[in-house]
Design goal:
Helix content of chain A: 25-40%
CATH topology of the largest domain in chain A: Uridine Diphospho-n-acetylenolpyruvylglucosamine Reductase, domain 3
Largest sheet of chain A: 7 strands, antiparallel
Number of strands of chain A: 18
Oligomer: homodimer
Radius of gyration of chain A: 23 Å
Number of domains of chain A: 4
CATH architecture of the largest domain in chain A: 2-Layer Sandwich
Strand content of chain A: 15-25%
Shape of chain A: globular
Number of helices of chain A: 16
Distance between the termini of chain A: 18 Å
């Protein structure tokens, strides 16, 4: 970066919001993926005007700009793949407005997901997407990846909650898109078009989110299935019914074994567990729903269905699901965490075939995830220091993503494409769809300065 | 249209699907708006391949193509504003698949909304958006306008249900966008980008819709408010609560008077009625929700809250709301039916100010609509044969749309922009947002052949 550019950036953000320190740049080299690339400098923008001036200058000089929130993404979205500037928005972290009568909240992109939840809780409201990294991840990142989580089966993903955005285009021009209303049919939906665009079309500087009343009651059950196919049938039975659970999680036989061995949990030797939660405004209603689901599970050969009578018992049922993260630490292996999503009817088929692929490629894997919306977390275990295992990883990943697409699924349910899945894009999207994405990118960012090197886009 | 072009079109669709008959062309001159323009010919496409060949040729020759479903739109979206070809998709009317385990249905664009509902009913499922014209309107039009209706307060609009689309671009190239899954974060969301794009970006040839289980129980109440502001406060109270009603409709004092006079209904002389419905899986739960809402209404000075004990009583409570359409026929006046939408907290303010504007401009109006999502149907009454009244109409419409935007609202909640609201676009959208819409249009349809003359886009 030439001295004139450096000075201009310093003038925009001030010394306290500019860094070229090697220790800072190393931190900005990676996110939660396995990709790395060092930027030339990093800036903390603290206003929309600063973002506008930065982009305007970068666009003129052709400098890549990678927007970044908390860097918790698993797809390499926040890795500055082409160097240049990392634009950190975590200091734009104000909750600007909470308006309960209009059921919305207005936030800056650097607000942490959990901080919004805390601010909404006194009103009895929440922002439902619930990404697993909620305690640290930022809402700007949630919008950029269309983040989702445990409750998507009933409440949908971030996309379903973004009402308006303020965004800065590559040119530095600022626009407001969407409407502060529950409905709009006014012009192109630029707002939802930016959701999930991974910082490649604009930098988001303000977000208006729809919020929902927090259900006051919930009920939990855990079911054990000797056969994976019976668990798949149980999911299908639930989908046929009037009940939409608020959580429907699946753990496969491999992860159950690993939890027994490494997390020392007293779990049965079975092929599947289903964890289910219902929610609503009354105790009797959540019990009514849960009883219906428990009956369906039993009708699909569940060996056991345990219904929690108390919150404490519910926590015990959640224990296996919540121990997966900690267990991964105890295994002392590397792992590739995926977020393949398939139609709900294809879950059992996907899991069986992923077992076969695991055997063929000689790498262990396990699956857990959101059975209620088809979003599975396939985790491949490998030793990153063993070149032979590393060499087998990529072909297995390719086959798993191909399998998901062949079953009518999608490459990513909630992490985004970024760098990790860019090469798989043609497995899901036809050549015309890919060409259309590139044309739209070209229309809004002709110099490819916004987060280049992602999503198989030019730049 | 030159003879060569005419022959080429005949070759593509066959004689039975081509018309230049004056009586047909007159039918295709208008939709449910007040705009008119005659096309050069009309075609019924019966396959994606035909649509592709038609667009490819039209693009080469620069012939405008206006896609059309049932023509029930109120925004002039289906009026061939620049002549050329009307592309009627009503003969592409097959329901291709209903897959309950995956909670989706795949349809052609010409399927009538009500026909899909009938096909889903035996499974206990439904497609929730519920546009008022559901008995005749087509699903392609629902997608093109992002249609909504009475139940959007709880169930959202068409956008929330479109999972995948097959679409033909102006070039004739066919693409599939979206995913057959409940979640996806894979590349740009071209699917939702096409929803609400009014046939200006692509012609939709296949639609995959998310479907929902039909609640088995519902409960209805009607509340009477002497003061409009109390009704507004009642809506705010509901928004603050845990309850999300499945219907929350408002009728203002003017429409109540008109219903008394022209539909001979026995209604009180009050400033507002609120009609509310709750739904769910059990009788006790829908009653629980309705009781909560009735309490809130009483706490906001409702003069009376009538709760239906039976289906028959519920029908009586619905009578006022359902009589509005018929009443309009009895009035023997022209009317401009709007679909302005404001944040829910601004409903009472909008209604008071719209009364003032009505007085200032000397034209009567009345309001009813979806208070639960802020979508109001403001209807201005005028005599189309009186040039003085006609001259006053446009300034009043402008002021109403400006008022909605000033209150944080949107020009259209469910009808779309088309021709009727094109001129108001700058009231809602800033210059950069408008420029961005034009750039995206330019990127996908550089020759402006797709539905030109709409939405303030070029062409």
């Amino acid at each position: 970066m030439d001295e004139k550019t450096r000075q201009a950036l310093l003038d925009i953000v001030g010394e306290e919001n500019f860094t070229e320190n090697i220790i800072d740049l190393v931190s900005y080299t990676y996110d939660a993926s396995s990709y790395e690339h060092r930027p030339d400098c990093a800036l903390w923008a603290i206003s929309t005007e600063q973002v506008s001036r930065i982009l305007s200058m970068a666009n003129e000089k052709g400098i890549p700009v990678t927007p970044r929130g908390a860097g918790t993404g698993l797809g390499g979205l926040a890795v500055p793949a082409r160097g240049g500037i990392v634009l950190d928005v975590t200091r734009m972290n104000s909750i600007l407005e909470i308006c309960i009568p209009d059921r919305l909240a207005v936030v800056q992109p650097g607000v942490v997901y959990a901080d919004l939840q805390s601010a909404l809780a006194p009103y009895g409201f929440f922002f439902p997407p619930d990404p697993a990294s909620g305690v640290v991840c930022t809402l700007g990142g949630n919008v950029a990846t269309n983040a989702g989580g445990l409750h998507a089966v009933k409440y949908g993903t971030t996309r379903d909650y973004v009402l308006c955005l303020e965004a800065v285009l590559a040119s530095g021009e600022v626009m407001r898109v969407g409407a502060r209303t529950m409905k709009t049919s006014s012009g192109y939906d630029l707002c939802r078009f930016l959701v999930g665009s991974e910082g490649t079309l604009a930098v988001i500087t303000e977000i208006t989110l729809k919020i929902a009343p927090q259900p006051s009651h919930r009920a939990t059950a855990l079911a054990v299935f000797h056969k994976l196919e019976d668990a798949g049938q149980a999911v299908t039975r639930v989908m046929h019914s009037e009940v939409t659970p608020s959580v429907l999680e699946l753990l496969d036989g491999s992860v159950i074994s690993l939890l027994r061995e490494h997390a020392h949990l007293d779990l049965p030797e079975v092929e599947a567990l289903l964890l289910v939660e219902t929610d609503g405004m009354t105790e009797s209603y959540v019990r009514f729903q849960l009883t219906k689901i428990a009956e369906m599970f039993r009708g699909c050969n569940a060996a056991e269905v345990e219904v929690a009578a108390t919150m404490r018992e519910a926590e015990l049922l959640w224990k296996a699901r919540k121990s997966i993260g900690g267990m991964m630490g105890a295994i002392h292996l590397d792992y590739a965490p995926e977020d393949i999503t398939v139609p709900m009817s294809q879950i059992a088929t996907f899991l069986r075939r992923s077992e076969e692929l695991s055997r063929v490629h000689g790498l262990d894997l396990f699956n857990f995830g959101h059975a209620g919306d088809g979003n599975l977390h396939t985790n491949i275990l490998y030793d990153g220091k063993d070149p032979d295992q590393v060499a087998r990883l990529e072909p297995l990943l390719y086959e798993l993503h191909k399998l998901a697409c062949d079953l009518g699924g999608t490459l990513s349910g909630e992490h985004g494409i970024g760098m990790t899945k860019a090469k798989y894009m043609p497995l899901e999207h036809d050549p015309t769809a890919l060409k259309t994405m590139r044309k739209l990118k070209q229309a809004l960012d002709p110099n490819n300065i916004l987060n280049p090197g992602k999503m198989m886009l030019p730049g």
